[in-house]
Amino acid sequence: MSGDSAASAPGRSGARAGRPVGRKRRYLAGGLLHGGVQGSPVLRLFMRWVRRPLLPVIRLWRRNLQLKVVVTTLLMSLGVVLLLGFVVIGQVRNGLLDAKVKASQSQATGGFAAAKQRADEAATAAGDAGTPVDDRPSQNVIQWMSDLVYSLSSGGQGAFDVVTLPAGGDSGGGRGPRASGDVAPSASIPESLRERVDSSTAAAQSYTRIVYNSSEASQPALVIGKRVNDPNGDPYQLYYLFPLTQEEKSLSLVKGTLATAGLFVVVLFGAIAWLVVRQVVTPVRMAAGVAERLSAGRLQERMKVTGEDDIARLGEAFNKMAQNLQLKISQLEDLSRMQRRFVSDVSHELRTPLTTVRMAADVIHEAREDFDPVTARSAELLADQLDRFESLLADLLEISRFDAGAAALEAEPIDLREVVRRVVTGAEPLAERKGTRIRVTGDQQPVVAEADARRVERILRNLVVNAVEHGEGKDVVVKLAAAGGAVAVAVRDYGVGLKPGEAARVFSRFWRADPARARTTGGTGLGLSIALEDARLHGGWLQAWGEPGGGSQFRLTLPRTADEPLRGSPIPLEPADSRGRRTAEGTAPPSGGARAATVPAQQSAGPGQARPARDPIPPRPAAAPPAADPTALPGNGARVVPRPVSPARRQDGPSAAEPPAAHGDGHPAGGPEEDPNSQGEACRGR
Amino acid sequence: MMSFMKGRVLVVDDDSALAEMLGIVLRGEGFEPSFVADGDKALAAFREAKPDLVLLDLMLPGRDGIEVCRLIRAESGVPIVMLTAKSDTVDVVVGLESGADDYIVKPFKPKELVARIRARLRRSEEPAPEQLAIGDLVIDVAGHSVKRDGQSIALTPLEFDLLVALARKPWQVFTREVLLEQVWGYRHAADTRLVNVHVQRLRSKVEKDPEKPEIVVTVRGVGYKAGPS
């Protein structure tokens, strides 16, 4: 039974499934064609080429639940319909054929019996007639066979045809192929059936197609064959051919009906799925839209709720959530407003009397030459401490402004070189007092970013002044860089540096490296906290790196445009001339030398008085418990190289360390690091 | 010249201690201060005293400082310096937009205050007759007038100074810092918002379309320059 005339549904599905398969095949062929080495780029190219037109479809597929459900339903119902169709068609076919085969078999059996009978009759007739001569009977057989075929087929009246074929390869004795109804005998009988008929005396059957000698179209048929003997007792093959045209017609009618019905069912399923999903998806989409508007700040948005089903419950829960959110947010807003108001009021109430005091103190200070020494000194102290009080108040107010969320960013494109120049100029007097030189690198090209110049300047002033104060009179390097969507300014000093864990804590409010130390220098302890808040306000990072005795580096990274998130910084947090880096580079002798190099710092730190260099650390922003530290630094946070300290301490005593230190100095890592090295020497010389 | 710079200063402040202290400092520098403590009476006091400069506290009983500033500016171009306890952006900008020329944040040092007052009172000693052109404006520096097509445009002294500074060097782009130094007399970089606000105010008076300025042109990322004439 020819499957190719089957219903259209399988054909359609075949074409559908065929598309991706075809692609894969082609892609495989491509891969094979171009061989292993070149294969992958070609493949990639090919995949890209294949995927490009598919991308919108893929995106739609990913984003549209309704489409997904409808397509899945369509595919699954198609599968079910196909399966059902095959089963039903199979059943119908079996039913039709079974009846036909049974009828055919009885017809054929009758035919075979008739042929046998006629052969027997002819044989006895010939026997009765007298001398059987060799050539006469054969003449008779030819005639007899033709008669047989004619008579056998005449009973069928088109319901079947009869074919005789010689048994085996033997074609003599008039047993050539004969056929009724213009059937091409040898072409219509399959070879396998002939062999089977030859090999046994039982009847055998097979399906075939009747081929006609005339131009009539071939048609499917059942053929039943048997080896029978002719009047001479020689075997020949007798075949009955029953055309199955009628059955095929019935079957294709059934197929067509099934296909049409299946198609309708599939389309209907699709439509139903679409409708059902729409019922669910529409409220979900509405919820998504409302949630988006809520998150955009329109807190009064609510979902429309109808009925009492699950969707309605979702809507109610959603609305309840939105209401609670709105309540909480408005509470927080009130709180923030109150705090802002409070800060503003406190600010005003404190500042007005402070202004009077300030002016009075200045007037007194101006006139101090006329006073006796005690009063004059008092006037000086008064003025100095008023300065400190003022800056502390200013910093406190600034911090509480940040806490209240009242700080606003006024970003505009600024050239950071300008800011750095102003900051460096401003820090020059302090640097001169400390004997420090401030170098600026990376300022050949403009370093432009959208930022609040006032805040950036405040951050950088803080960093540079800190670096100068803690730099022990060594160079302070301000480095600028821009790359990708970020700009960065790093302030490097070669002072006492930071101990492990301090790099994160320097940003804590009122943090001091050594709480036991009295506060000697100015500074409110809030500078770096404010700087960190300023950086955050820009969406930027402020990070610290330091190693004990090796100085520190503070890096400010800002996004080039205000609304762009930061992904990296153009300047590495750990400077290239850090001890860790230099050791890692491998030019220095194995860790021994580098480790030893840090030892003098440790050693002279012990005695205390011998090392004024230790002093600058304590005044750094101070004291708060570590728990409060804003370690929530973006990016990789702050980092410290702890390596040099403890091993040096554990291994060699302070005294034993002196010679290796000199040894370590003998191995500068190379040209660019000349400066830090000479600095290091200067340090050790002390 | 020093004597020329001395002048009458009206102090509008409700805090009597601060007002007295201001009086001491101002007299010490040779100014003639007069005082008013109430916002409602400030305008009357201003008309009576005819000061050369107004020191104005933003927080006042009665009318607040912003309102007083607006009223005074409505009838006079006399320099106004705000005293404010709030350095927040919004407060400062609102103050400047209401017509103040400069502001000083409490607590301030007497020297700083005096420097600001002097900078505002400094009138360049009889300038040589000078005609400048910027865009389609004609500026008579000595006559202190700006005209477009013969129509004169009223500017405050500060706005005039700002315009003249830009017009004198039309080829130069002025950064906000440079303008602060030349026009406001700040030696150290201060708040560039001063410049922004005053440029806006100047534009609203001299530009045909302040949205599309042709006289005072913004150079993005740098500052301002005079438009082509």
UniProtKB/TrEMBL annotation, chain B:
<keyword id="KW-0804">Transcription</keyword>
<keyword id="KW-0597">Phosphoprotein</keyword>
<dbReference type="GO" id="GO:0045893">
    <property type="term" value="P:positive regulation of DNA-templated transcription"/>
</dbReference>
<dbReference type="GO" id="GO:0032993">
    <property type="term" value="C:protein-DNA complex"/>
</dbReference>
<dbReference type="InterPro" id="IPR047673">
    <property type="entry name" value="MtrA_REC"/>
</dbReference>
<feature type="domain" description="OmpR/PhoB-type">
    <location>
        <begin position="129"/>
        <end position="228"/>
    </location>
</feature>
<protein>
    <recommendedName>
        <fullName>DNA-binding response regulator MtrA</fullName>
    </recommendedName>
</protein>
<dbReference type="InterPro" id="IPR036388">
    <property type="entry name" value="WH-like_DNA-bd_sf"/>
</dbReference>
<dbReference type="GO" id="GO:0005829">
    <property type="term" value="C:cytosol"/>
</dbReference>
<keyword id="KW-0238">DNA-binding</keyword>
<feature type="DNA-binding region" description="OmpR/PhoB-type">
    <location>
        <begin position="129"/>
        <end position="228"/>
    </location>
</feature>
<keyword id="KW-0902">Two-component regulatory system</keyword>
<dbReference type="InterPro" id="IPR016032">
    <property type="entry name" value="Sig_transdc_resp-reg_C-effctor"/>
</dbReference>
<dbReference type="InterPro" id="IPR039420">
    <property type="entry name" value="WalR-like"/>
</dbReference>
<feature type="domain" description="Response regulatory">
    <location>
        <begin position="8"/>
        <end position="121"/>
    </location>
</feature>
<dbReference type="GO" id="GO:0000976">
    <property type="term" value="F:transcription cis-regulatory region binding"/>
</dbReference>
<dbReference type="InterPro" id="IPR011006">
    <property type="entry name" value="CheY-like_superfamily"/>
</dbReference>
<dbReference type="InterPro" id="IPR001867">
    <property type="entry name" value="OmpR/PhoB-type_DNA-bd"/>
</dbReference>
<dbReference type="Pfam" id="PF00486">
    <property type="entry name" value="Trans_reg_C"/>
</dbReference>
<dbReference type="InterPro" id="IPR047671">
    <property type="entry name" value="MtrAB_MtrA"/>
</dbReference>
<dbReference type="InterPro" id="IPR001789">
    <property type="entry name" value="Sig_transdc_resp-reg_receiver"/>
</dbReference>
<dbReference type="GO" id="GO:0000156">
    <property type="term" value="F:phosphorelay response regulator activity"/>
</dbReference>
<feature type="modified residue" description="4-aspartylphosphate">
    <location>
        <position position="57"/>
    </location>
</feature>
<keyword id="KW-0805">Transcription regulation</keyword>
<dbReference type="Pfam" id="PF00072">
    <property type="entry name" value="Response_reg"/>
</dbReference>
